[in-house]
Design goal:
Helix content: 25-40%
Structural class: alpha/beta
Strand content: 15-25%
CATH superfamily of the largest domain: Metal-dependent hydrolases
Number of domains: 2
Shape: globular
Number of strands: 20
């Protein structure tokens, strides 16, 4: 009797897993695919109104104007007349796949114990079967940089594609960068401990900066020596000095940004990206002269100070772009995993603020590809690059018309179904029957 109960239990659990499992990842591309008739948004600012796009073995082999080219339609032919083709959107700086349900501690794996822990690798904690991950694909977000949180040096990020069995299959670029949270010159008063409300100078700022300087100096010295014992934290920093990795510095104030860039350059770290960059537009000349790019804070946020323009956060990216700084959009903040699906609509918000639509598109395609070091394969629709793209019925930056009909990652025809789309179909049928 006990064995029968065990069998029934296993059967029940198996059914639950099947019901709740993510869509099966698509197989590798086996036949040539040609998309014709669509308006192709290349991702570098250019458009082809009536395009022919052909890809084979996961690579783009033709991207041309149907009016002037003599390219034959081959393989699986997709008529996309009246629709739009875009390169897959890229989401930098996200905890996607590390947090499933904010309210359930067991599903949060974005933060580890410790303050200086560059050896913590976000990739091995990435959950490729996350329900959150599958909800991004129907909006065109097909690649993401998975980043840890917490501490001063949070760990190492990696870049993944969003249709995989596991983290090994998902990996596109392993251990691409180190996350550094620069201290703030101001701190908020903890009123519950009797401190004055509001913001006050952080008297520990210099001490925290010195801790970072010492850790970086010790890491550099470690790499130049032959230590008797392995120090995993120092070892993980070596890619910064060789130029193989970038350091992503979370900093918002003018002084913090200037201090961070100046000190890191002085310590021999050249590849620096500012994350957040609330006041970056005030030091745009400094950033440009030092070739520093910015992952601008989430567009849909409120201004930090009462005396600032109400729409400052909407304009931040535009201000930097106009000053010649390389900028990309990201979605960090509360419920950032879920909010990553809104990445194209953040770009659409910039269009509403006066930015050219194709320039706004670059902030979620070509620009993040450049910043993350992926532009040789992703970010634009160009011959030789990965066939990571999607077809939309309308403007992909407008939530009313961003309706995907097909999507491909490395040429693989991926599913656009998710738990949410299944529920939408289920209840759409229910209420249509009642009518």
């Amino acid at each position: 009797m006990k064995s029968i109960k065990n069998i029934l239990t296993i059967f029940t659990l198996s059914i639950c897993v099947l019901v709740n499992a993510q869509q099966t990842p698509a197989p590798i591309q086996k036949e040539i695919v040609t998309i014709h008739g669509a308006t192709a948004h290349i991702g570098n600012g250019s458009i082809i109104e009536n395009s022919i796009i052909t890809f084979e073995n996961g690579k783009l082999v033709a991207v041309a104007d149907a009016k002037t080219s003599k390219i034959a339609l081959r393989g699986n032919i997709i008529d996309a007349t009246g629709k739009h083709v875009y390169p897959g959107f890229i989401a930098p700086n996200t905890t996607l796949g590390l947090v499933e349900i904010d309210a359930v501690r067991q599903t949060r794996d974005q933060d580890e114990i410790g303050d200086m822990i560059p050896n913590v690798r976000s990739l091995i904690a990435y959950n490729a079967e996350s329900k959150v991950t599958e909800s991004l694909r129907p909006n065109g977000v097909l690649l993401a940089q998975i980043t840890p949180r917490g501490g001063t040096i949070s760990g190492t990020s990696s870049i993944v594609q969003l249709d995989a069995w596991n983290w090994e299959d998902a990996a596109v670029k392993v251990d691409d960068g180190i996350m550094l949270h620069w201290p703030s010159t101001y701190k908020r008063g903890r009123w519950w401990l009797g401190e004055p409300r509001g913001y006050h100078p952080n008297e520990k700022y210099t001490d925290k900066v010195n801790e970072i300087k010492d850790f970086i100096a010790n890491s550099n010295a470690y790499g130049k020596s032959t230590p008797a014992k392995t120090n995993e934290a120092f070892k993980a920093m070596q890619g910064l000095f060789s130029g193989e990795q970038k350091i992503y510095v979370y900093a918002n104030g003018e002084k913090e940004i200037i201090d961070a860039v100046s000190i890191l350059k002085e310590k021999g770290i050249e590849h620096i990206v500012i994350v957040g960059g609330y006041d970056a537009y005030k030091v745009s000349d400094f950033l440009k002269s030092n070739k520093i790019s910015v992952l601008i804070q989430r567009v849909h946020t409120m201004p930090n100070n009462d005396d600032e323009d109400y729409d400052l956060t909407y304009k931040l990216a535009n201000l930097l772009v106009n000053d010649g700084v390389l900028v990309a959009l990201q979605s960090s903040g509360q419920m950032e995993g879920m909010n990553t699906r809104n990445l194209p609509f953040y770009a659409g918000q910039l269009v509403g603020q006066g930015m050219d639509k194709e320039m706004a598109l670059q902030l979620i395609t070509n620009n993040p590809a450049k910043i993350l070091g992926l532009d040789n394969q992703y970010g634009t629709l160009e011959v030789g690059k990965s066939a990571t793209l999607f077809i939309s019925e309308g403007d992909a930056l407008d939530m009313r018309t961003n309706i995907l009909t097909r999507a491909f990652i490395d040429g693989r025809d991926i599913s656009l179904e998710s738990h949410q789309t299944e529920l939408w179909i289920r209840y759409s049928d229910k209420y249509s029957e009642e009518e």
